[in-house]
Fold:
Amino acid sequence: MSTAEVICAGALDGVAHGFLGRRGGVSTGIHAGLNVGIGSHDDAEAVARNRDLARDAVLPGAALVTVYQVHSRDVVIVNAPFPGERPRGDAMVTRSPGLLLGILTADCAPVLFADAEAGVVGAAHAGWKGALAGVTDATLDAMERLGARRGNIAAAIGPCIARASYEVDLPFAERFAADDPANERFFADGARPDRLQFDLEAYVAARLAAAGVGRVEALGLDTYADPGRFFSYRRATHEGAPDYGRQISLIGL
Structure:
């Protein structure tokens, strides 16, 4: 086991946060490293240990809180650790110290938010479905309900699949064009005539900027292209692997 790698964003300086990949941890085999996916086929004790290691690397002693992610725009306001079954949703916000919000990804975009002045933080899981549905906008709305001001919010987009690695078909692009014709700019020609390359990170960043977020930072790290550093659902699928690990992104007060 090696020390977990914590990737921080300058936009969130002064707030306990980190984007973690697969480095460190106790899992072995195809899940080797810091796999935190409860829904994976990894050993449950290893996953629990990895989640503790991730928590302690960012905010030791905090209560780690995660939701049952379903690719929605639903946001959960968290005041205390969940007493039983995790609620379904794809984002969380809090103003309660001692809580560490965790989002799991394996190609989707993790987004961490903070209004340091108001003492409000948030975390969102933005896969293409949730991003298009407006999960980041819903997160901002929820933060405002807790006292944050949109112009004071900083947001950082962590490791996710990059445009060069994200081939999609034409109907996929048509969904985005139907929502806003300007979304065409997030697609580039693919290697085949009926394929395009989608820039998920740029799309999420543009939505955040359009929503009035004070500062947006994109880390530009491709989960698919760096198997030693990140888990990737699409890479595992292309390799014919029977399962895949998940990484976690964390923020708390």
Observations:
- The domain at 6-162+200-252 is CATH 3.60.140.10 (CNF1/YfiH-like putative cysteine hydrolases).
- The first strand starts at residue 6 and ends at 7.
